[in-house]
Amino acid sequence: DQQVKQNSPSLSVQEGRISILNCDYTNSMFDYFLWYKKYPAEGPTFLISISSIKDKNEDGRFTVFLNKSAKHLSLHIVPSQPGDSAVYFCAALSGAGGTSYGKLTFGQGTILTVHP
Amino acid sequence: KAGVTQTPRYLIKTRGQQVTLSCSPISGHRSVSWYQQTPGQGLQFLFEYFSETQRNKGNFPGRFSGRQFSNSRSEMNVSTLELGDSALYLCASSLGQGINQPQHFGDGTRLSIL
Fold first, then answer.
1. Who's near B31: CB < 8 A, 6+ residues apart?
2. Per-residue pLDDT reduced to its tens digit, B61-85
3. Dist CA B25 CA B45 (whole Å)
């Protein structure tokens, strides 16, 4: 039972344009969502997060949008740069009850390629 | 500020052996989580330790175990290794208290079983 899904295995974007990565979840208990970037031979790097009480969070070129009714979140990268080329993982946590601390549920990842 | 440190980076073992992996969290972080990454299953949660106690556990067999020391450093042990245990093992740390705490990952230990 895959509770977090990234349905696009890959995405190709031109430098300077917007990259939009999507993620869907099924568990309504999730209340904290994160995006990570991963390069080969390195661990995931934390990018940005959003709490379920918000619908948008921005940090520089990165914006995460959360649509709770649709159980959908997206990561926007504007403008995209060649250095953004990596695997992006969406992750979710059910932390409000205090019983799922530290237990991130990950999507399968989306390979982003930004062409110069 | 030093990040999460995992040792060793690479390990080769044979079936039936056991292995111990080590993780040093970011200073001040009291929660350490372990994940397994494989091409087929993606990133899967193994367990989480906080203040030397296992606070959460994923769906892995009892051959996978861990512990946490008083300085928050953690070790993960896998006994009776199987070919399917070949994977990248990632450790992540966070403050561990309150909600909405991002986890920060180490670069992992690549375990290969022959």
1. A101, A102, B25, B48, B49, B50, B55, B93, B94, B95, B96, B101, B103
2. 999 999 999 999 999 999 999 999 9
3. 17
Is the pLDDT at A106 greater than 60? The verdict is yes
Q: What are the phi and psi torsion angles at A38 (to 5°)? A: -135, 125
Distance (Å, rounded) from C-alpha A68 to C-alpha A54?
9
Residue A96 — very low, low, confident or very high, per pLDDT cuts 50/70/90?
A: low
Provide the shortest C-alpha distance from residue B105 to chain A (in Å). Answer: 6
- Inter-chain touch B99–A95, beta carbons under 8 Å: yes
Size of interface A-B (CB pairs under 8 A): 75
| Number of Cβ within a 10 Å radius of residue B63 | 13
Residues of B in contact with A109 (CB under 8 A): 42
**Interatomic CA distance for residues B114 and A72, integer angstroms:** 41
What is the Cα–Cα distance from B102 to B95, expressed in whole angstroms?
8
Provide the pLDDT for residue A12.
98
**What pLDDT digit, counting tens, does each position of A20-73 carry?**
999 999 999 898 999 999 998 899 999 999 999 999 999 999 999 999 999 999
As a whole number of angstroms, the distance between CA A107 and CA A7 comes to: 9
